Amino acid sequence: MKMKGIESLKEIFKYGAFSLPVANYLLCEGNIPGDCKRILDVLKLAWKGNFKEAIRRADKAVENSRSETAKYFLLANKLVFLKYTGKVDMNLYRYLKRNLPKMSKSIRDTVIVTLINFEASGVKPLRKMRVWKNNYRKSTLSFLYLSLARREADSGDLSEAVHGYIQAYKLSREIPHPTCMVSSLNDLAWDIKEKHPKLAYDLSKGAVFWLGYYREEPGNLFGALDTLFVVEKDMDSPSIHSTAHIIVSLPVPEDYLSLLKKAKKFVLDYTGSTYPNTSQLRRYVEKVAWKGKTLSSKGISDILKGKTKMIRADTIRKLLTSGVDTGAPFPVWNEWIKMEIERKYRESSEKLKELPFHQRQILFLTTYMALLDREFLSRKEKLKKAYTLLEDIESFADFMAKDHRTMEFVVSMVKAHPFVEGRKEAVKRALARMKRKRLERFVLRYIEMKESDRKLLDRFLRNYGRYDGVRFGIRLKGPEVVREFAKKYSLKVQPLFAAFWCEEDGRVRRRLERILKYMFLN
Q1: Its domain of life (predicted)?
Q2: Per-residue pLDDT at 292
Q3: In CATH, what class is 6-231?
């Protein structure tokens, strides 16, 4: 594909970070000018949340660029990147605003949205940007509404901001533009969490669902997990342990290292059965021990005097007569969550009994292929046994009841954490297209693979689901093995090529080719 300049990248900018496979394809296979290549390199860094390196590369690209349009685009993006690193460059803001009349319309609209977004950072310019909403492309308009909503929220006009967030979400869903979708729901949840915590919780879960559906790694949208964590902590929600587990399982941008530290305190210890008798735990026992009098007076006394050095899990459980807040000592919190898992497991097992066998198979596979951490089930023999037992749901339930992690897996089959639920929905779009016999063949081969290859294939199929129905305006190409895989399993070719080009490393793509070949050869 021959590209003449930055205007040729319009279709890529339409989807934002969701255009990663096209960016990879063009950088690898496309005949593109230097300016376009440098812009794509800068954008890819920003999409990952690496804003400091994106700023450095943007500065270098501006120096090397002969195109005024490319320079303005890069400088506008630099203004955004600086904002994400906590810096406010008023001089750059004024420079871009002053030069708007010199810009071509294609870039001017993008820069105007950037300037409005900048004005939502707490800066108070003498004159705010004025806008007319009838001349923008849908992708630009969705971000325009988002930027205006942020500006209104920053000014204290929440009712006007809510309207903007809703419009931004509706428009971005139509495109789709995942960054705007997640950001509009997340920002609205953050702005209303004090006055409307339950609504904020629902919105935040929605943002994290779309984050899981559209993104392998949150990158510059990590704030959605931050918001959910904060809301769950304020509500003393037991679900915070799942959010915490996801946060510690993902690459965390530098700006969210403090969140990582907080999250680690809520990650479950599945195997612990005794806990040190700390002063914090004794204070908690003293506060609740006499309420239900579920322990003997001597047992309570020995704990409070420190004679009992290690407290058993079942002893702590006897003290739990009601819900526990997130500020409780870790042993108390840990046992409460394990009890919650057991309760949800019983409910989920009953729901699975009502479903037909094929539906249970799909739920099992989509859950396994969506989880971030599944070492507890990944051994070939164990995975095969669990899958085979699905036909006899009573035996399956007994097998999965042996461990809190496998119990939680069953819970996730019915209803997972929103981030995992999004990933489940993505991979389901691939599995649902496979005919029954083909799916059985797929599963048998899948189980026999080593876990590292399974994970790569999972990512490939999740990405297939994400790009199913998306039109980039160019036809992607790739190795013939991708077409053969599509034919074997009744999948569409273009979404598979998009999934193939989601992989940036050539060595990983070659490994993926070997895996796909294994999956369809007799």
Answers
A1: Bacteria
A2: 57
A3: mainly alpha
Residues 461/499, Cβ–Cβ less than 8 Å:
yes
Closest CA to 500 of 477, 469, 474, 471: 477
Classify residue 155 by burial, with Cβ atoms within 10 Å: 0-12, 13-18, 19+: middle
- How far, in Å, CA of 518 to CA of 520, rounded? 6
Evaluate if residue 125 carries a pLDDT over 80: no
Cβ–Cβ < 8 Å for 409, 344: no
Q: Single out the residue of 237, 242, 254, 165 nearest to residue 207, CA to CA.
A: 165
- 276 backbone dihedrals φ, ψ, rounded to 5°: -60, 140
Span between the terminal Cα atoms of the chain, in Å: 36
Per-residue tokens: 173: 């869903």
Domain ranges of the chain: 6-231, 339-520
- Residues listed for the chain: 522
- Whole-number pLDDT of residue 135: 62
The closest of 441, 457, 435 to 368, measured between CA atoms, is 457
- pTM equals 0.91
